[in-house]
Structure formats: C-alpha cells, structure tokens
C-alpha cells in the first residue's frame, strides 16, 4: 500500500534516529512518525481498547486516528501529524486512550496547568 520514495531522494534528507518501542530506527528529516513506523517494518501503531486488535496508519492526513502513538511519554499523539525529531521515543499505544503523561513523571494536572499558562501568556514573539 505505502512505499518510500527512492533512496536517491531519501538520502538528500538528513538522517534522524528515533526509537520505536525501544529499538533505534534511522528515519529521514521530514518523515512523520507514522511514516517512520511504517518504514521500520511495523504495520501497527496502536491496539484497540476492546479487542486489542492492531491498527496502523491509514489516511496519513489526520482523519482516521489509527496512527495514535505515545511520543516521548505523551499518549494519543497522531503520528501522521508529528515530524520525527532526533532521539524521539515512540511507543505503540496499547488499549484505551488515556489523557496523561505516561513516562515523563509529571501528573496530568501539572501538564494541563503548564498548557493553561502557555495560553494565558499569549503568543510568543
Ligand atoms: S493515519 Fe489517519 S489520522 Fe494519522
């Protein structure tokens, strides 16, 4: 279904190492997380809440939500809308969504508080 661009075009973009479920993968600058997951040979980003069935990126444009992953400890990230960044940690999202941080060591309340403060500060120049 999906295939990468020819290597000659890919090699023009700088390499970016990300960790997908703990394993290093060399993506290319400009790749989305979902594209990197697919290019790594994985078909699934998440599992469903009820049956645990695997789901993988489908639309690659933010409509289907089948690309939800945990990125750097934040659950429910749409992998197709997030570009890879050097050292990024991507994890398969298993089961039901949660709204909090899983690994960053900050409870939800602190995250929401920080987001609120960002909004109250207004746009940064
Ligand atoms: S692949 Fe459909 S929302 Fe990301």
Q: How would you concisely characterize the structure shown here?
A:
By secondary structure, the protein is of the alpha+beta class. It contains 3 helices and 7 strands, in the order αββαβββββα.
Could you walk me through the main structural features you see in this protein, from its secondary elements to its overall organization?
Mean pLDDT is 82; it is low at 105-120. The protein has a 5-stranded mixed sheet with strand order 2-1-7-5-6, covered by helices on one side. 20% of the residues lie in helices and 23% in strands. The protein is globular and about 45 Å long. With 125 residues, it is of the alpha+beta class. A hairpin with a 2-residue loop joins strand 5 and strand 6 (74-78). The protein is built from 3 helices and 7 strands. It has a single domain, classed as Roll (Ubiquitin-like (UB roll)). Bound molecules: FE2/S2 (inorganic) cluster (FES). The site of FE2/S2 (inorganic) cluster has 13 residues, from loops.
What sort of overall outline do the alpha carbons produce when their principal axes are compared?
Answer: globular
Largest sheet: 5 strands, mixed
Query: Which ligands occur here?
Result: FE2/S2 (inorganic) cluster
Number of helices: 3
What would the CATH topology be?
Answer: Ubiquitin-like (UB roll)
What is the oligomer described by this structure? single chain
> What's the total count of β strands?
7
Query: What is the structural class?
Result: alpha+beta
Give the arrangement of secondary structure elements:
Layout: H1 7-10, E1 15-20, E2 23-28, H2 33-39, E3 46-47, E4 54-55, E5 68-71, E6 74-78, E7 89-92, H3 108-121
Parallel strand pairs: 1-7
Antiparallel strand pairs: 1-2, 3-4, 5-6, 5-7
């Amino acid at each position: 279904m999906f295939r990468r661009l020819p290597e000659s075009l890919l090699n023009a973009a700088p390499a970016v190492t990300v960790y997908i479920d703990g394993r290093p993968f060399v993506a290319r600058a400009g790749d989305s997380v979902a594209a990197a997951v697919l290019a790594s040979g994985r078909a699934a980003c998440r599992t469903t809440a009820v049956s645990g069935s695997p789901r993988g990126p489908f639309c690659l444009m933010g409509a289907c939500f089948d690309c939800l992953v945990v990125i750097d400890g934040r659950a429910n990230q749409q992998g197709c809308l997030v570009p890879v960044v050097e050292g990024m940690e991507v994890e398969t999202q298993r089961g039901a969504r949660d709204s909090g941080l899983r690994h960053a060591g900050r409870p939800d309340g602190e995250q929401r508080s920080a987001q609120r403060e960002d909004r109250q500060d207004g746009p940064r120049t």
